[in-house]
Specification:
This protein is an alpha+beta fold and about 90 residues long. It is built from two helices and two strands, in the order αββα. It has a domain of about 45 residues. A two-stranded antiparallel ribbon has the order 1-2. A hairpin with a 7-residue loop joins β1 and β2.
Length: about 90
């Protein structure tokens, strides 16, 4: 009997997920549209690369890039400075 209730609970949970997934697919989101940008390849005067991402992916890339730059700058950005172990 315990297995029946576990199966019934799982079925109800999956039905709720399926219904919400169908609702999300019915409404096309603005973030799903691809936005393409052309970026120059480093070290080349003529070569470029075309990158197509959704608006949400471009925002995530921007956040990760900014975070990486801040980490590289270390103490200059107010973060913790990286210790240099040269000569020890």
């Amino acid at each position: 009997m315990k297995g029946f209730w576990i199966s019934a609970g799982a079925l109800v949970a999956l039905a709720g997920v399926s219904a919400s997934a169908q609702e999300q697919q019915a409404e096309p989101a603005k973030d799903e549209k691809k936005i393409c940008r052309t970026e120059r390849v480093t070290g080349s005067l003529t070569r470029s690369s075309r990158i197509c991402l959704t608006a949400a992916q471009w925002r995530e890339l921007s956040v990760r890039t900014k975070k990486g730059v801040d980490e590289m700058q270390g103490g200059a950005a107010g973060g913790t400075a990286v210790q240099n172990n040269v000569g020890l």
